[in-house]
């Protein structure tokens, strides 16, 4: 009944990291190249759930679009646009706020992590974030969503909202979406702490590799990455309880397009003094062409705005009839 369609998004809330690249961007390109219909979005409405400087937000949205294109998203084959330019997201988000339950939102670990002990001071939007995310996906009747591990719980909630809507109104209107969480780097960890995810919101810049870092910065961060004193193990089992080593091996595998087994096969017994420079060389080889292309694209912001505008028109053409049908189902 529902044709295969992929939707995913990234917040334009700061520089993109290696985690965003391996967990999201790189896989978005793979899906596009498999020939599936792909819709990708800079989710600025999500970004403002925490305060954003307006000038920076505008700049980061363009930078995000440049990163998508530099990583291999072809705006002719994929739809690439900015969320706030297609009103269907906000409209369906509101309707889903009336379908979803407070208790569902309150159980989200990302809400608990981000609001912490100061939930009273968090924005209402931060609490409702997963409901808007469900709207992003459902406004296109998307059937698959490539994401990192951290988004798994939000996608389960998207499924719950779709099922409840279909039940409440006795329709078979929304598909029950499948998360696609695959590859060696579904959860890239901080370079300073193997128990925390690599994130643009981490206060330490040493904890992450940014897509805008140059070769020297990448090499220095990998050289200083936290590790244990043991050499790499002979088998993958030996990475158990070694989160920092595991993380660097995962990153290597994802960048090289190899399995973790292959990487361990190639580096069995190697010291980090050998492995880290190899990883740094690989990271620079894979990331520097993207950085160069991003910098080139950023010299022409009008062209980026034109691409996003065109993408928004194409997105609107899919989402508008779906949201109009939702109003009809609701008796509006
Ligand atoms: P962030 O979590 O960095 O603020 P977003 O919420 O915009 O970024 O997430 C964009 C995409 O990047 C999501 O699919 C998310 O799962 C993925 N992602 C973010 N951080 C990581 C990470 N450390 N490892 C793997 N994927 C990640
Ligand atoms: Na995230």
Number of helices: 13
> Quick one: overall form?
globular
CATH superfamily of the largest domain: HUPs
Number of domains: 2
- Small-molecule components bound: adenosine-5'-diphosphate, sodium ion
H/E element order: EHEHHEHHHHEHEHHHHH
Strands in their spatial order, largest beta sheet: 1-2-3
**Rg value:** 20 Å
What fraction of residues sit in β-strands? 5-15%
Look at the helices and sheets and give the structural class.
Answer: mainly alpha
Describe this entry's structure for a reader.
Helix 4 (88-97) packs across helix 7, helix 4 (88-97) crosses helix 13 (301-330) and helix 7 crosses helix 8 (152-168). The protein starts with a strand and ends with a helix. The chain is globular, with a radius of gyration of 20 Å. It is mainly alpha-helical. It has two domains: 5-181 and 300-330, HUPs (Rossmann fold, 3-Layer(aba) Sandwich), CATH 3.40.50; 205-295, Orthogonal Bundle (Tyrosyl-Transfer RNA Synthetase). The model has no long low-confidence stretch (mean pLDDT 97). It has a three-stranded parallel β-sheet with strand order 1-2-3. A two-stranded parallel sheet has the order 4-5. Helices cover 54% and strands 7% of the residues. The chain has helices at residues 18-33, 44-47, 54-71, 88-97, 102-106, 109-115, 124-138, 152-168, 215-223, 243-256, 260-267, 272-297, 301-330, and strands spanning 5-10, 37-42, 79-82, 144-146, 178-180. Residues 10-11, 17, 19-20, 23-24, 147-148, 150-151, 186-188, 197-201 line the site of adenosine-5'-diphosphate. Adenosine-5'-diphosphate is lined by residues 10-11, 17, 19-20, 23-24, 147-148, 150-151, 186-188, 197-201.
């Amino acid at each position: 009944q529902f044709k295969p369609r992929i939707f995913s998004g990234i917040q334009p809330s700061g520089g993109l990291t290696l985690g965003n690249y391996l967990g999201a961007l790189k896989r978005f390109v793979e899906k596009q190249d498999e020939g599936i219909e792909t819709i990708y979005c800079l989710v600025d409405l999500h970004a403002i759930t925490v305060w954003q400087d307006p000038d920076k937000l505008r700049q980061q949205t363009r930078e995000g679009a440049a990163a998508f294109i530099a990583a291999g998203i072809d705006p002719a084959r994929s739809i690439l646009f900015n969320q706030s330019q297609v009103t269907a997201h906000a409209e369906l988000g509101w309707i889903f706020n009336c379908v979803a339950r407070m208790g569902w939102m309150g159980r989200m670990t990302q809400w608990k992590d981000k609001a912490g002990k100061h939930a009273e001071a968090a924005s209402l939007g931060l609490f409702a974030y997963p409901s808007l995310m469900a709207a992003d996906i459902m406004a296109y009747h998307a059937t698959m969503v490539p994401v990192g591990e951290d988004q798994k719980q939000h996608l389960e909630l998207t499924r719950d909202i779709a099922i409840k809507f279909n039940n409440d109104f006795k329709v078979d209107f929304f598909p029950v979406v499948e998360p696609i969480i695959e590859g060696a780097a579904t959860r890239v960890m901080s370079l300073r702490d193997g128990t925390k995810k690599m994130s643009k919101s981490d206060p330490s810049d040493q904890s992450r590799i940014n897509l805008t870092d140059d070769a020297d910065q990448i090499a220095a961060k990998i050289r200083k990455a936290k590790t244990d004193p043991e050499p790499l193990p002979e088998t993958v089992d030996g990475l158990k309880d070694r989160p920092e080593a595991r993380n660097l091996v995962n990153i290597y595998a994802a960048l090289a397009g190899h399995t973790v087994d292959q990487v361990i096969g190639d580096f069995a017994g190697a010291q980090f003094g050998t492995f880290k420079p190899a990883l740094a060389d690989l990271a620079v080889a894979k990331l520097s062409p993207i950085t160069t292309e991003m910098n080139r694209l950023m010299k022409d912001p009008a062209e980026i705005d034109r691409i996003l505008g065109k993408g928004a028109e194409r997105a609107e053409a899919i989402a508008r009839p779906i949201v109009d049908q939702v109003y009809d189902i609701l008796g509006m």
